[in-house]
Design a protein that fits this description.
Blueprint (H helix, E strand, L loop, with lengths): L4 E8 L2 E8 L2 E5 L1 E4 L11 H6 L5 E4 H6 L3 H6 L3 H5 L5 E4 L2 H5 L5 E2 L4 E4 L6 E4 L1 H11 L3 E3 L11 H21 L7 E6 L5 H12 L5 E4 L8 H11 L9 E3 L5 H9 L4 E4 L1 H7 L2 E4 L2 E4 L19 H4 L4 H9 L3 H27 L3 H12 L4
Parallel strand pairs: 4-14, 5-6, 6-10, 10-11, 11-12, 12-13, 13-14
Antiparallel strand pairs: 1-2, 2-3, 7-8, 8-9, 15-16
């Protein structure tokens, strides 16, 4: 029997809450996964990530293979021991990062590109991506897919779907740890719904532990993301987790939860925090604005994070950012991570209560008042 199971506990419309079981613990869904590209969520410790309410984190296959190398990480006990995170971990395939590099050569065999650290030529194939991820030892690993750029004509998008499906079969053949690593397939197809549908149906036939929707965070915008996700999510099995890759802003997450998505990741909360942009119940604010120079309130009076409950004022954060103090990024990141986890906690509670649509409406109404 597989150690990876997904059980739906409650629904509200198409929104659902459930439990995804992995070798390193259970994950209550829907949930947001903080991004730790280099095996670390920037500006915070693993304990601070835990205290935010995060249940699972994401690390980057491509970057870790370049530095320090998957062999060293495997020798030191695997990614969990290496980054001191005892909960579930997901690693991406490296495809998204590779396809965004200048001068990349995409062929049916795989992808050739220049190592951004030393300029050497590197080839990344489906087999190599899986080899790296097997060595890293994450609970969930992603198939190597072709992430089609936006905009893309139908021919280019169709080629991306063909390669994605062919590469998935090669990933499955190369996967050496199916007993303790769940391999997720990825639905591609750009903005063409018939290609999305064809890709999804082919993936489902392979009976994978989970499924992802990719290619919706490369510039499409909120409306296109919604159109693609709303159409694609129902095509995926009810008893497997659904992962929307690289999304996004609070309004994106709430829309996608309403379509039946379970897992999310994005660099937005941590990246925005480092540039003084923080999320509150009444919208996003930038702490470097002069209006906060004498503001004695916490970032968000309704928040229970270490920064807000600890008495750190907006004026103090304003000072830290202007003084270029590292603590500014720490406190802002702690807050943004907690904001995202609280949002998912409230979404799960609303689904359980059967009132998700009302919760979404009320949240967005309040969130929009600060704009």
């Amino acid at each position: 029997m597989s150690v990876f199971t997904y059980t739906v506990r409650a629904t509200s419309g198409r929104a659902r809450t459930g439990v995804f079981t992995t070798p390193h613990g259970e994950v209550a869904t829907p949930t947001f996964m903080p991004v730790g590209t280099q095996a670390a969520v920037r500006a915070v410790t693993p304990e601070q990530v835990r205290r935010s309410g995060a249940q699972v984190v994401l690390a980057n296959t491509y970057h870790l293979a370049l530095r320090p190398g998957e062999g060293l990480i495997e020798k030191l006990g695997g990614l969990h021991d290496f980054m001191r995170w005892d909960g579930p971990i997901l690693t991406d395939s490296g495809g998204f990062q590779v396809f965004s590099l200048p001068g990349v050569e995409i062929r049916d065999r795989g992808v050739r590109f220049k190592n951004e650290l030393d300029g050497s030529v590197v080839e990344l194939t489906p087999e190599r991506s899986i080899e790296i991820q097997n060595a890293l030892g994450a609970d969930v690993i992603m198939a190597f897919d072709e992430c089609t750029p936006y905009p893309a004509d139908e021919k280019l998008a169709g080629t991306g779907v063909r390669r994605t499906l062919q590469w998935l079969e090669r990933c499955m053949s190369a996967h050496g740890r199916p007993h303790d690593q769940a391999l997720f397939g990825i639905v591609q197809g750009s903005t063409y719904l018939h290609l999305r549908e064809a890709c999804a149906r082919s993936l489902v036939e392979l009976d994978l532990p989970g499924y992802a929707i990719g290619g919706v965070s490369v510039g499409e915008g909120h409306e296109e993301m919604c159109r693609i996700t709303e159409h694609t999510a129902p095509l995926l099995p009810d008893d497997r987790p659904r992962y929307l890759m690289g999304v996004g802003l609070p309004e994106d997450l709430l829309a996608a939860v309403g379509y039946g998505i379970d897992l999310f990741d994005c660099v937005i909360p941590t990246r925005y925090a480092r540039s003084a942009s923080v999320f509150t119940a009444r919208g996003r604010i930038r702490l470097t604005h002069r209006r906060y120079r004498r503001d004695g309130y916490p970032i968000d009076p309704s928040c229970d994070c270490e920064a807000c409950s600890g008495g750190f004022s907006r004026a103090y954060l304003h000072h830290l950012f202007n003084a270029n103090e590292v603590l500014s990024a720490v406190l802002a990141t702690v807050h943004n991570l907690r904001f995202y986890q609280r949002l998912m906690e409230r979404a799960r509670a609303a689904i359980t209560a059967g009132s998700y649509v009302e919760f979404q409406r009320r949240f967005l109404e309040e969130y929009g008042r600060g704009r």
